[in-house]
Design brief:
Layout (H helix, E strand, L loop, with lengths): L4 E6 L3 H12 L4 E7 L3 H11 L3 E3 L2 H5 L6 E4 L6 H10 L3 E4 L7 H14 L3 E3 L7 H11 L6 E11 L16 H17 L5 E8 L6 E10 L2 E8 L1 E12 L3 E4 L11 E6 L9 E6 L4 H15 L7 H20 L6
Parallel strand pairs: 1-2, 1-4, 2-3, 4-5, 5-6, 7-10
Antiparallel strand pairs: 7-11, 8-9, 9-10, 11-12, 12-13, 13-14
Length: 334
């Protein structure tokens, strides 16, 4: 049995070139074998910069390469499902960026393609593999903060460039799809449940049409989660996990830095000035490297990928329900 999965990358997206490819190249079980771009010169430049042996001038050429076992898909949101399906049909395993689909229906199409082809397909929610989130879930399950009752979060940045794909509605742009998916994913991850109903508020950019400010309340069987996300706000991110006897705060929950340790804080609630807070620090790590390594091991060992499509369907169902609620002004069921 081979000890490495040979990966091909569709496109030269910034996240691929600057973050994911370098991370996966450091893995024991991952090898980046090829990069494809519709512009062969861009593919060649990326390969030269990153030391990747093969450059292709079309995605089809890469999918036809028998020496590529798996594909990383960081294309714009509206291209996730079409090209992931084509990759599966070519016999390639697929790690696709979030949000993996534009709708629940699309996600189910991807599941059908996966099952037909007998390959593995997973969504690139790297936060689920970061030690700080695994520790937060462990603390909650061990009863360190009593009974989990509430989660509150914020995720925001400022970008109003009309040419940026995050601001193009038909490409799946907007706050909820781009970054709101993270507090939804992590709230579901920590509760270990699915919300039974949600309510949402959405404010759209009058020119771009995308949701630039979205907030939601998720009603879980065991408690509630609330979050705000925005693409025209000061850059900020934080998650609070509150129980009956304590609180966990994750300082940099989503864009965990590659050059410094991460911290979470466990608060006993002894006083409002922080007298009951203790810090837990996590050594420098690369959540993208961990994600890639776990996916490659799943391919090699025949085990489950970190974020399977069954989870993706549930996350997308919450996103859809929030949008429905924002339109009707009423609770919606995912």
């Amino acid at each position: 049995m081979r000890n490495k999965v040979r990966w091909g990358v569709l496109g030269v997206a910034k996240i691929a070139i600057e973050t994911v490819i370098p991370a996966m190249q450091r893995g024991e079980c991952s090898e980046i074998a090829a990069v494809a771009s519709r512009d062969i010169d861009r593919a060649r430049r990326a390969c030269a910069e990153l030391g990747v042996p093969k450059a292709y001038g079309s995605y089809e050429e890469l999918l036809g390469d028998p020496d590529v076992d798996a594909v990383y898909n960081p294309l714009p949101n509206h291209l996730h499902v079409p090209w992931s399906i084509r990759a599966a049909e070519a016999g390639k395993h697929v790690l696709c960026e979030k949000p993996i689909a534009m709708s629940v229906a699309e996600c189910r199409m991807l599941m059908e393609a996966r099952d037909r082809a007998g390959v593995k397909i997973g969504e690139a929610f790297m936060v689920r593999t970061h030690p700080q989130w695994l520790r937060a879930r462990e603390l909650v399950r061990s009863g360190q903060i009593g009974d989990l009752r509430a989660i509150a979060g914020v995720f925001s940045f400022f970008n109003r460039d009309p040419d940026n794909i995050r601001n193009i509605l038909e490409y799946g742009g907007g706050a909820l799809m781009d970054i709101g998916c993270y507090p939804i994913q992590t709230s579901r991850f920590i509760f270990g449940e699915e919300p039974v109903r949600v309510v949402g508020l959405v404010e759209r950019d009058p020119e771009l049409g995308i949701d630039r400010l979205s907030s939601a309340l998720l009603d879980f069987p065991s408690g509630q989660a609330v979050f705000t996300c925005g693409t025209q706000l000061v850059p900020y991110q934080r998650m609070q996990i509150l129980g009956t006897r304590g609180r966990i705060e994750i300082q940099i929950p989503f864009n965990a830095p590659l050059d410094r340790p991460c911290s979470l804080f466990v608060d006993s609630g002894a006083d409002v000035f922080g007298g009951g807070i203790r810090e837990q620090e996590f050594p420098v790590c690369d959540q993208y490297a961990i994600q890639g390594e776990l996916f490659s091991r799943a391919v090699l060992e025949g085990t489950e990928v970190p974020t399977p499509l069954e989870d993706s369907v549930s996350n997308m169902a919450v996103i859809e329900a929030i949008f429905r609620s924002a339109l009707t002004g009423a609770w919606a069921k995912p």
